[in-house]
Each structure stands twice: as C-alpha cells, then as structure tokens.
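We emphasize that the prediction below concerns an isolated chain of 432 residues; any contacts that depend on oligomerization or on bound cofactors are therefore not represented. The input was used exactly as deposited, without trimming of termini.
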Amino acid sequence: MHDINLSLQKTPVLKQSGFTESQAFLESRRCLACPGRYCAASCPIHTPVTEFIAKIREKDYDGALCLIKENNCMPQVTCRVCAQERQCEKNCTRGIKGEPVAIGALERFAVENGVSQKPISLEQSKGRVAILGSGPAGLSCAYSLTIKGYKVDIFEARDYPGGVLAWGIPDFILPKESLDSFLSELDDLGVTIHCGKKISGDQNLHNLFSQGFSAIFVATGSGTEKRLDLPGAESVFTSSEFLETANINPGILQGKFKSIAVIGGGDTAVDAARAALRIGAEKVTLIYRRSRLEMGASRKEIEMAEEEGVDFKFLALPQRILPEGVKCAAMRLTEASFPGGRRNTEAILGEDFVVEAEAVVSALGFAPSEFEGLDVDAKGYLKVGKRFETRIKGVFAGGDAAGSAKSIAAALQSGKLAADCIIDLLKRLSTE
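Result of the prediction step, given as a token string:
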C-alpha cells in the first residue's frame, strides 16, 4: 500500500552485539524493583521497566516484550536509539552508588528474543485521518489511530518514509531493518504512505478536508538545521546533509575525504563523526568549544567514538573555515552564568591553531520545519493547545514541529496522545 521508492521487506531485526541470555539474566537480577519506580516515571512513554525486567529474570521473554509494547509501538527502534542514559537509567537507584541497571540493553534483549502478537487490523470505518510527516510522532499517531479503526494516510515530503529515523540516525546505530519492520507492521494494518508529497499552507489543508479526511495531524519535525556562520563556511556540510547522504547514498561519499572535522557537542555531532570513519576517512576530529563534561552527547556514544578512533579537540572555538581545515581559538573555562548552568568560555590570546580537514561537518542543532498556514511561537514551533489542536478546527500538531518532543520516545508519546485527542474530536463530531 506504499507508493514509495524504497522496498519495504519484512526482515527480522538484526542482532548486533546485544546481551547474551546469561548476561541478560545476570543484569536483570541487579534490578531492585524499587517501590518508587523512578525509572518508569522518567520514561516519556511510561514503559513498565521493573515489570518487564522481572519477566526477563523469569526467562519469559515473550511476556517481557508484550509489557514493553503496551505503551510503545516500536520497541525495535527505541531499544537502539532511546536516550536511556538521560531518562530511565539516569533515575535508576543502582546508579546512586555505581552503574545503573542497563535498561536499554535489556529492552533490546527482549525485542530480539521475545515474540508478541501482532495488533488486530480493525475495519477502518470510523473516519479518515491525514498525517503530514512520517517521523516518530507521525508514525506513532498513525499506529494508534489505525488499531482503533481509523483509516490513515501519511504524506511524507522526502522520497522515503521514517523521517529522522531514516535519514538522521546512522545504520550502525539503527539498522534499516529495525525501521522497515515497523513500517511493514503499518502496511499490514492498512496505513498508506505517500512519499514525495509535501503539503503546507491553508489551501492544501482545506483540500485534504475536501478529499474526505476528517482530521489532520501535522508532524513535520525539526528538519531545518542551523548553519555555521563563519567566513568560508559555504563549503561546510550540515550534519543532516552529511548523515542523509551517508545513510541513503553512502557511495557518494565513500573514500572521498581522508580527513573530516565535525563541529558540535551533541549526539548528532558524535554520530556524524562515527559515520565519517565508516565512509573511509582516515582521520576524524570532533571540535567542541567546551570540555568533555559539558558535552550534550551521551557518555556511551562518546566512549564508542573514542574507541573507534575519533579525535576530540575540546576547548576549541572555530573561527574560520580554511582550504586546509578549521582555524580555531583555544579556550579556557570560566564560571557559569547561573548556579547549575554550563560553564562559559573565553579565548586564550595568541593560542590559535588549525585542525586539518578536507571536509567539515557542522552539527549545531535544529529548528522546526517551516509550515505555512498555521501560527507559530517566537521559536518557530507550531502553536497548539493542551490537546494538540491548532487554530484550524480538525488540524492538530505535535512532535518536534510543536516543540513537544525532546527525544524519540517523547515524539512517540506525543503522537500517541495526539491520536487520543483526534479520536475524541471525531467521536464528538459523529454525534452532532
């Protein structure tokens, strides 16, 4: 049912250096089953962490996966890309005096070793809903609506579905088979994905209503990347340009650059640096203006990048892009502007240096994708009410586009909650 260029094959999720059965059993025994359930409370999708770990301890892997899927429609994705280190694992009681329970690894073990029943495809007779964007929020909303009897069509601007899951996350972190397996589930449920279809503006929204859609969910994400504003930066790749090419058409970049510099300190910067090694760069340098402690990237990601050979240049502020690389000013840390904030930096006079690189990638963060016809706030996010509604009746918005998602899990939850609000509206309209 997908009019897309990429084939969707029902391929099992790849197993890549996950827990063995004995490792999973031993790790599951470390869970204290705290009465406070602090781990689950910090999970955006409210995964019953203690309960699914108990099932693993009992070697009931099917039961563990079923518990995970109660609130999470795509655990084959979240088990690999979710920010557990900053969410559930951060609040694990074990972490107070040592290492937290490896909740993410245990979730992945359940996904790879458990079997769950496929959702039943209901007769889709309760109304039609159009979803704009096929990223995490859009896909989650589609799933939640479809299993409750609504016909869903997704309209995706790119030539392939998945949003940031497809173009922004390297396949050594999220294998394509993981996303494809979920897309196949949606296909089986009757969801239609129209790729290469960008819809924006008042008129196009009203056209969808005239085509028989009863509601619209805008989940166009945050695909507009901040560009580096330095002399010579015209030749710099943005991380989205670089990662999309490396993920979708890696042959274009393979072996083209011997040395690559990446500017930034978040997970995307580290992903780009690791991807650079995999397209044949012999030397990859990540440039960050503060110290390692101030980096926003996951500690695990940083450690893996170091093990793979990425060179980190801390306390380095890019000044100019040169033909031979990046001219940087050496920095020192100063006091933070407020208690608990990140420390500021100042340049050390006369300590400039050049990081040699044949190509430069900037990873400076994202802004919401532009969407004409709906109101936005001062930061560019779509304005929505508490129930995800926009100023146009029947048009909802969520995920990164509305500023309601700071992680993949949060985007999934945003789509799920928006689906509930859409269903409430359609039920009210059907009785009027």
